[in-house]
Structure formats: structure tokens, C-alpha cells
Request: fold
Amino acid sequence: MAEAAAFPSPRAEGHRLWTRICHWIVALSFLTLCFSGFVILMAHPRLYWGEVGNALTPALLELPISNNHRPEGWDQAVVFTEFANAPISANRMYRIFNENSWARSLHFLAGWFFVIAGAFYALAGVVTGHMRRNLLPRANELIPQTLWRDLKSYFHLQFGSAGGGPPYGPLQKCAYASVALVVLPFMVVTGLSMSPAVTAAYPILLDLFGGYQSARTLHFIGFGALVLFLVAHVAMVALTGFRRQLRAMIMGN
Amino acid sequence: MSKISMHRRTFIKGMASSAGIMLAGCAETIPPTYGNLLRMGDLLTYRAHRLLLSGQALVREYDYSDISSAPAIGTINPGNSSERAFDPVHGPAYERLLKDEFADWRLTVEGSVTRPGAYSLADLKRMPSRTQITRHTCEEGWSAIAQWTGVPVRSVLEASSIKPSARFVKFYSYDNQLGSIDMLDALHPQTILAYGMNGRDLPTGHGAPLRLRLETQLGAKSRKFLRRIVVLDDYDDDTFQRAQNGWAWYMGI
Reply:
């Protein structure tokens, strides 16, 4: 909207007010979601695949982030022997670390801020053309030679005139577009797939991800991908002039 | 796999009472937030679910071969004074009932009903029964699939003839746990008072002699060791939310 020039200016055009507001709401809610999500995960730091997973079944992955999984702390009470795989019931005889009361409510509160700001961002991104013009890589940017040249410049720490805001480089566009259009929506959908009320109304979510525990595991993998992005993002901000970039994202330019 | 037996007359009576409930639903009685930001987020989630989801959609039911091992956590035996949720009044009473295999146990139903009553296990087993194989989704993050047999809460409410002003159903346990659900969840076809698990009597760790199965919310809402049901016109904030120790009241998630 702001740019009327026929060809993109080599100088950074800065960030518009609505992108800056969305950026900081999403950034704050993302950090809150990471923190509260980690606290929730500490209550049961085991990941599984499929619909079912608990202390009495094998895990896909056990995370050393709390002392909540103690196989010796269970008192075997009932064996349902009429089944081939003999499922059992056992009583947990120890107390676990569980701060899910406030952590889950905080996760959802931050989730609401994130979803509302994210939805506005997506809508405004389409309406203003920001998405098409600045975020989605053009066809000629996706050819291997261009991407390779761009990647080499990262290794040589040559960022040209990288200033605050668009135009963005090919790999930069790929990173922003995949986070904004793929990973973040994926986090919302895998998150919703853990809700008994939502999956009652939309059981397709369980089929999509292979079950409740699969959705939970994928939600964690998405979290890992987003943390990697955050590290790279902050590193790039630091390498291209931390104060200048921060100023551009706060003041506009 | 699952069967619901319900006489036609009961069904028609049920339709009539649901109509009364829907009319009553026009007045707003919602959980108070006490100005707490986390509770405001919880309330927004609850409202969004009630607005956007079909509250009577059935959760997925599984095959017999899907039944898994099932941990019993929280209170294992309300009669044990070292339990964190031990109730000095009702705990010893539970101990006596357990010794007698619950022969003298009664479920009292009272409050906003025209026919308050006290039901023995035999009384409940004579009522329409429902068997369902569903996923228990613990708020800690684990899940288990089990077969539950019991009487729909709806049937008990119909037998007690709830008043049109009734909006919440509150469940009291033999430990000091309690919890309430709204009428939409209470009348959900899969919301049952279970006395059987995987084809046998409900084991003590899982809430003998009777527990709630509320499949559209997290497992923590499915109170174990039931002794009393009170039908309420208004949200009972004094004993609901404050006693929740900061937990969200609605756990459909």
C-alpha cells in the first residue's frame, strides 16, 4: 500500500504499525506459551504415538525435565487378564510435581492473544498484500542457484543492506512464511486436537494426526521448531544491528 | 460395541425436561472470574466452546481390543487418612462401606429436583445402562482407553425430575473433592455414572463404587467415589471455584 515505486527500493522500508503490533503481541504470547507449555509438560514428561500413552505403557521419548515418572512408585492393583495384551491398572503411590492449574489457564490465555493477533495478521497480510509482496518467495527466488547464493552469504555473514523491514532475502522469506503460515497454524490445530470437547465435535482431528498422544507429540515437535526459529531470528537481529532492528520493530524505521 | 437402552416414555420425558432446560438457559449464570485474568481466559474458552461446538457431539468410542492399561491417580482410597484429599468425616464412612462391599452405600440426589432420592447400587443397575469404550484424557498429559458401564446422568436426573430452573449438577465424593458441570454436559448421552470398568466392578483406585464419566472434558472432572449429587439453579461459586485451588472450572479445553 505504502510502496508505489515500480521496482523495490534497495533500502529497507521499515515495518508498518499493524505488523509491529501483531509482532509484539505474538512474540509475548509465544514466550508465555513456551513457558506455560513447558510447565504443563513437566507434569508428564513422556511422549507417545497414537491415542494412548501413560506411565504403564512404553514411551516414544522420555524427557529429563521432572522426576514425575517413577516406575517403582506404582502399586499394581488389577490385572485385566481376559485380554491378550493384558492391560493392567495400577495405583500411583507418590505425589508428582503438578502446576497445571495456573499453567494451563495461562497457556490458554496466551493462546487467545496469539490466535486473535495471528488471525488479524493473516487477514491484514492478505488484504494489504504484505503476505504476497514481502513474505511469500517469488518463483525466481526459489531456484536452487538463488537459494545457494543466499545461503553462502549467510555463512560469510554478508547481509548486504539488511535493514529494518522488507524487502527480505529468499531464505528469510522462506523462514518467515513457513513459521507464519505452516508451523504456527500447525501448533493451533495440534493443540485443539488435545481437547476432548473439540475432538468430539471434529473427530477428523484425531485421524489427521493419528490420535491424541500423536497430536501431543507433534505439538512438542512444533515447539522445538519454533524455539529453533526464535534462536536463529534473534541471532540474525543481533548480527544485523540489534539496536537498529529493535528500533525498526518498535518505532517503524 | 456400545449400547444405550432407553424406554420411549423416558425418552419423551427427557425431551420435555431438556426443553425446560433450554428455556432456563436464556438467563445467564456463568462462573465468576473474581477479576482474575486467568479465569477470564477460562471463561472465554468455555463461551467459545458453547458457541462454536455442538455440545451433544459424541466422543469417539473404541474397540474392545483398544482397551489399554489405566493408571489410578489422585485419591486411591478415601478411607486412608494419609491421602492428600482425606475427608475426616466421609473418609471413615467410606472405610466402613468398603468393608461391607458397599451394601449400605447410597447415592443421594437432591437440590433443584421434585423427587429427591437415595439410590443403592442395585437401584442404579436396574436403571437404563450404557457401556462405552472411551479415552480417559488426564489433565497431566497421559491417556488410557477403558470400557465403562453405568447409568446415564440424564436417566438419574429424569428419575429425580429436575426443575426447569436447574442449570448445574454438582458431584460430592468421599474424599474432599467436588465439582460441578453444566446441564449441557450433564445431559450428554455419554455422561454416565459408572459402576463397571472393563467388565468388572469399578476398582477402588478408579472410584468404587460409583464415579462420573464426563467424556467431553479432561479426566479430572470425572469425580470418583461419589456419594451425593446436588442439582443447582445457580453457579455455586463459594464451593466450586474457590475450592478448585486455581483450577479452571471448565476442562473441555
Residues 1-9 of chain A have pLDDT under 50 and may be disordered. Residues 154 and 236 of chain A are 10 Å apart (CA to CA).
